[in-house]
Write a structure and sequence with these properties.
- The protein has 18 helices and no strands.
- By secondary structure, the protein is mainly α.
- 70% of the residues lie in helices and 0% in strands.
Length: 486
């Protein structure tokens, strides 16, 4: 009987993985899908469908999968937040704003919790999450690239004034270039995580091309935090690939000296990664026997991109169209200095409201009403806080803020531990968190944007699946091949 149960579990994992991918794409399409559904009165129907699918994923999940810290650290944030919500609603200065924020939080909970439930702590579920981010990158990145090339735009933040940003600054389905840049970082992290589990060279090269095109869109958003986050995920990916490249070089050198193999060019098990985990046949071995031209292609492509980057800065005709040159110039103008000063003043005002509340929080949706009613705010009143972490802390107090901080610290701790998780998952978690932190500090208010919470849920899903991989589950097989690089 035990044998017949696992094929069913695997089939359920596959179905849940497809739902997880669909949730990410659905949320990332944003106003293109959500606004028409809302106008037609079908948005809550779609959301209740997501709830039903998430509940089904939970009810059909093997109970032993819950014996892990990863899902509970994420669930704890929502449990504490909604346990504190009656107090936050009671002290809120504006009942309508509080009700709107509560409804938006419910939507964020629905999508993020359903995503984590559909991941199911399984390798197949995690593959679904990664595929979802790749599909989102193809969709939103494609729209952004179309905006860059045509100077046309899909959605307008201000329907009266039209497009309020630069003519070739993309926003895709996120209304604001900063929001798009941060979410593209998460999409790139997911796409590269998917690439790490693929055996086929052509698929890995294709994903690299998609990521490069998505990176171009990030550059054209002219988001400072987006560019910094992009540099971080590229550095993380280089750190992930370097040991495999190095292992492939050693294997090719050893092959001439009669290194042991399984007869098909694959090395036997026993090689160690730098994180202390042992590889199986086919991991570094696939890198060892990969075509030499693949490394040359990588180096050649990198050299060509570097040359293009240099030309775009040094050739006047190209420099005039280079968004990075334009952004660097903006770093030193008065408008940027005023914007940065405004953000600091908003944070000071929020912390003052927190202190005046007795550190229990100023109430749900309270920052803007308090700012508008403040006789001496020390800042322009018609604006959002522009920092989701401070917004959560100031409105819901130390208890909720500390719980959320601890959940993020737990993710960072496991990602920093080479003995707890494989390098691939550590890089994936850090990639999602890089996007999460960038989105939290650049958006006017990402606190109640579902995509922001999907990033943290994806990081928890990677931790969950990888932690279970460390403890082999009987008769459960994996969806994707072992990591292999060339």
């Amino acid at each position: 009987m035990s044998r017949s149960r696992f094929p069913l579990t695997r089939a359920l994992d596959l179905c849940a993985a497809l739902v997880a991918a669909a949730i990410i794409v659905f949320v990332c399409l944003g106003g293109v899908v959500l606004l028409p559904l809302n106008r037609a009165g079908h948005l809550w129907t779609a959301q209740w469908t997501v709830v039903a699918l998430g509940v089904f994923a939970v009810l059909t999940m093997p109970p032993r999968r819950w014996a892990a810290w990863a899902p509970w650290t994420f669930i704890a944030v929502w449990a504490v937040l909604f346990a504190w919500m009656p107090h936050a609603l009671a002290v809120a200065p504006d009942a309508r704003a509080a009700d709107i924020e509560l409804r938006r939080f419910v939507q964020c909970l629905i999508y993020s919790a359903a995503l984590l439930a559909c991941a199911r702590g399984a390798r197949l579920g995690l593959a679904g999450v990664r595929v979802g981010w790749l599909l989102a990158l193809l969709t939103c990145g494609g729209i952004g690239l179309w905006e860059v090339l045509t100077a046309n735009h899909l959605l307008f933040l201000d329907p009266v004034r039209g497009w309020v940003f630069g003519p070739r600054m993309p926003a895709a389905t996120f209304l604001n270039p900063n929001n798009l840049a941060a979410m593209l970082i998460g999409m790139i992290a997911g796409a590269w995580a998917l690439r790490s589990g693929l055996r086929w060279l052509w698929a890995r090269v294709a994903l690299d091309v998609v990521v490069v095109l998505g990176s171009v869109v990030v550059v054209f958003t002219q988001s400072r935090a987006g560019l910094l986050a992009l540099a971080v995920v590229y550095a993380l990916e280089l750190w992930r690939r370097w040991p495999l490249w190095h292992a492939g070089h050693r294997e090719r050198a050893a092959a001439g000296g009669g290194a042991s193999s399984d007869g098909n060019g694959e090395p036997g098990p026993g090689h160690e990664r730098e994180d202390g985990t042992e590889t199986e046949a086919g991991d570094a071995g696939a890198a060892a026997k990969g075509p030499r031209w693949s490394r040359r292609w990588t180096l050649g492509a990198g050299g060509a991109l570097a040359a293009l980057a240099v030309a775009s800065v040094t050739i006047p005709a190209l420099a005039r169209r280079n968004p990075v040159v334009e952004m660097v110039g903006m770093l030193f103008d008065d408008e940027t200095a005023r914007s940065d000063g405004l953000r600091l003043q908003l944070i000071r005002a929020a912390l003052r409201y927190l202190r005046e509340s007795g550190w229990t929080g100023s109430g749900a949706g309270s920052f803007e009403p308090l700012l508008w009613a403040d006789p001496e705010p020390g800042v322009v009143k018609l604006t959002n806080l522009h920092n989701a972490f401070i917004e959560l802390l100031s409105q819901y107090g130390l208890v909720v803020g500390a719980t959320h901080a601890l959940s993020l610290i737990a993710l960072l701790a496991v990602a920093a531990s080479p003995r707890y998780l494989p390098r691939d998952n550590r890089v994936e978690i850090l990639g999602y968190l890089t996007a999460f932190f960038a989105f939290g500090i650049v958006a006017s208010s990402s606190l109640t944007i579902p995509g922001w919470w999907l990033l943290q849920a994806s990081a928890a899903a990677s931790w969950w699946a990888a932690a279970r991989e460390r403890t082999p589950q009987p008769a459960e097989s994996h969806a994707l091949g072992r990591s292999s690089e060339t």
